[in-house]
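Bug: token stream looks shifted between consecutive jobs. Job 1:
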Amino acid sequence: MSNNSHGHAGGKKGGEYGNKKKHAKNEGNNGGGAGATDRRFKTLPASEALPRGQAIGGYIFVCNNDTMDENLRRELFGLPSRYRDSVRAIRPGLPLFLYNYSTHQLHGIFEAASFGGTNIDPKAWEDKKCPGESRFPAQVRVATRKIYDPLEEDAFRPILHHYDGPKFRLELSVTEALALLDIFADKDDA
């Protein structure tokens, strides 16, 4: 909407511009508010994202006991819409991990089988209040690299970047991703 009001600003007479501007203000309080909210959910706060310019080395997706089977059966991982831009940075082959917050275990090793996107499968984790819409629209198709026994939280938590107490960043630096891959491999050798 803001594009339309900017487009009309230069070429319209004063009265028409004034009406458009007033109309745009009203939209800003109603429809534009949704746009502002949507913008807020597209990008992660700095504390939850890798520093600008740092390459993504891997990604942790989150599930619970209720959603884990669907993640694995569909070979699709998803997160809420506020992770949309972050998930779009995922490229095929990127190491992925699945954290089950019901059990506090990290499962792996998976890899991206597609580019990250939005609503790759809108029926996955379908929102019962909004049929046909996913509760987790920031999605990526996954393939299994190798299944290891899951890591307990004490084994992987020290590697991850933490913010706001126990929360950890889902985007992994190259160093963090390699360290997680090593822990899984070392566990397999033991």
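Job 2, same session, no restart:
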Amino acid sequence: MMEILDTSQKESLKQVNTIDFVTHDQKIRSDFDIFEFKKNKSKDKSKEYINFPFEKLSEIKKCAVTNQYFSVFLIVVKGVTNLDYLQGLEIDDYQVSSIDINDLKKHRASLVNLFLNLYGSKILPQTKISKSTSSIYGELFYPVGKNDDPYNRHVLSLKYYKGLNISVQSFKKKIDNHKVKYFWDNDSLVPSRIYNSKDKANDYWIQGGRSSEKNLITFLSLNSFKEYKNSKIGVLYTIIDDFNESLGKYIEFHLYEMSKDEEVVYQLSSNKQLFLESAIKYFSGKKINVVDYINEDKSVQFVEKIILMLNQEIENLDVTRSNKLKKGINISITKDPKYYSGNDKDDPYKSFSKEIIVQNITEDNLEIKKESSLIKNPICLKILQELMVKDSIGKNKIEFTFIPKEKINTKYKFVTFHRYYYGKFYKDYAVTSQFDNDGNIIFDLEKSEDFFNEESVLAKNLADLGIKEKNKGTVECIFYDEVKNPNVILNIGIYEIPKMETISERLRLADGRKKPYVKRLINDLELFENQYTEYKNDVDLKNVKQLLLEFDEEKISLNEYRQLLSKCNITGRKKIGKAYTDYLIKLNSPYIAFSNHRGRDFKEDYSPLYWTHFFRNIPGIDKTVYARGKQVPVNHEFYSVAEGTSNIKQTYEKGYPIRRIINKGFRFSEEYNKLLSEMFDVDFVRINQATVVPFPVKFNREYFNMVKRNLIKE
């Protein structure tokens, strides 16, 4: 992730495994002029992307140029040229104007590109603004290795699109190829792109030469900068240092490494062990009753395994089974809630109260993948975690073997909102909780309309932050020490990050500009036919392969491929389209399934990676809201946690859960940041499970579930 930050913000930045930059605006203003050539609007859609005549700028020295969407930006050493000269060039379809650095900040990609291109011009003296530009949409090449192979060479590619993308590109020498062509007339320098050239050169270079996995390593696919330094493209450090030495007085790039303390977030096995140690202390000497309401072979086997494991791992724990819930701690094996509602039966899970602590497991989770120990069985760890929460609520007291005393903040009250349905009607409630130094929990339950009473000072201050009764559903948690200073955490869901080694592939899933090899598409289609034999002789599938065979280029863009599939009646709404989509997902293919069948899931899960990457939090101001005429910071925090659910779930196999936490509040301080860390970073939260939420929220939810049956129905 890259952000344009004021110098004052630089010290507080705590990103890891990221690149960001800082601009020195006044120095840029004093030494450079910046101009924008803006494309005139045209009713003729075919003229929207006419190539800019860069050759008209060839007489201008000491400059760099880049283009983005409908504009071309030019940065030039002050005094070299002026607006009158540029207007006199009379470039058709473009209006030129002088702009300030603040205007350019609205086009972050172009800002980065211009200075990358200035840097490129410095290290490559003959790279001039002629019939080509040194960068297209922010792409800059830098030689890697000696490049002494006469037919294959490698360069480091820096691209900017919603973030800085850095990877090694391979080039090969070709003759009379229809691909985009590059001249490479000096072994130590990068190639220059050729635009609309009719030159029948005997040899030139195109992207896509001989490569290996090491050559194709990308920045995002690496776990830490330690790996990056040891990788073949560790030359990035040299480039950044050299760039900052040359142009750092205008713009500085910074690399942020993950500290040892922050790396613990990803040491999940270590975190599980810490939790298990606490759980063993917590349950030692207790009794647990297991009730199997399904009583079928699968559930019986599951109960046998879980009883055996718990009794083996936890000293003096007494785990037995019976045919009904008993006072104390229970594990309930039931059908899915839809089964009971659909068959007009009472769901036994809903019958528990504070005197009967129940953790429900439905039949779709009756699987223990490994039996060697609890630490390798996330479903068992989740059972213990859930029971510890509910048992604490039942006693209105947290034992410090569960959550360390130093991580429980006694200063704040925490508010969450809940809805209780009875028949066709429902009531909304607010639950407030507070913890004291002895671990006692004080809960308060009131109707939502009473909480938002017109006379309430707290409600008025929440309204200033945009939180009223009608939009309380957007709130995950309100916390405050004084009613005049409330903070609001907005509930915006979870994102799942794939495993580190596959993330660079996954990031390509939704990018229609990516160009896989045509041969690979054909090969994957044939593999699909072999696996899904019902489509072996499908006419539409044969038509797709035939069109690909007739395609006259080595690669095809994903957008073109999707259009081709649609043309052959293979869409996501059809059975074959859904099957092909699922096949590609299982294959972990670097090109996207074309269908809406799974497209929405991918969009929600993976597009946020452009903004989150792998950092733990960003303590800084991102946006502002207005309260009582004053600008109020909206603080963004990112933590490795996930959302709540009423049912036990297995661990995420594809990667680590991450949530984006947005807080609206009046204050931003070290104390506030520490509070959030305590809420999200206690040991039991870090077990990589789907039921993990800020622990005050978790406690409030479970409290409401345990008392809602006793609410008076009005």
